[in-house]
């Protein structure tokens, strides 16, 4: 789906510019991932030093080069500072399936930023990556994330009981998905971002 010779795709929406995660973003990633409210549902322990953030940036770059993942830095137009990330943490070319993940600095919660970013990422997945299915695993307690995905026409397929060891105990994961046919039927409900190569 992607390979190391491709130019990283840049996505633009009304308010946002989604671009490659760069080494200089490690400070902003550390700031976000050191916040226990931001990491509450996806990292066991908030970051404690910036070297951990540097490793995350390197991991994103490695997945992109290998064609196994594609994660964007979320920035506001006119300000290059990373405020969050979103994208495909896992890409399965054979199955034409992607698994999304996302995070956002707490200062930008409740403003529709993540919904706008995911609209562009979803459109890119179906239109440019040729995906047939986009899915997400969400801890059952993460009601805000479940509501966000429902608003993007993801369907709850079921609950994977005690699927994840997290925070010292087994937690239920909700599996949610959006199929290309369903997205095509509903995409008129929201305008997706434009891709700029």
Number of strands: 9
Order of helices and strands: EEHHEEEHEHEEHE
CATH homologous superfamily caption:
Gcn5-related N-acetyltransferase (GNAT)
- The chain-level mean pLDDT equals 93
Report the β-strand fraction as a percent range: 35-45%
Chart the SSEs and their pairings.
Layout: E1 10-12, E2 16-20, H1 26-33, H2 50-66, E3 70-76, E4 79-92, E5 97-104, H3 113-127, E6 133-139, H4 143-151, E7 155-166, E8 169-179, H5 180-186, E9 194-196
Helix pairs in contact: 1-2
Describe the structure.
By secondary structure, the chain is α+β, with helices and mostly antiparallel strands. It has a single domain (10-196), classed as Aminopeptidase (3-Layer(aba) Sandwich). The protein has helices spanning 26-33, 50-66, 113-127, 143-151, 180-186; strands at residues 10-12, 16-20, 70-76, 79-92, 97-104, 133-139, 155-166, 169-179, 194-196. The chain has a nine-stranded mixed sheet with strand order 7-8-6-5-4-3-2-1-9, sandwiched between helices. Helix 1 packs across helix 2. It is globular and about 40 Å long.
Could you write a compact summary of the structure shown?
The chain has 197 residues and is an alpha+beta fold. Helix content is 28%, strand content 36%.
What labels describe this entry?
single chain; 197 residues; alpha+beta; Aminopeptidase; nine-stranded mixed beta sheet; globular; disordered C terminus
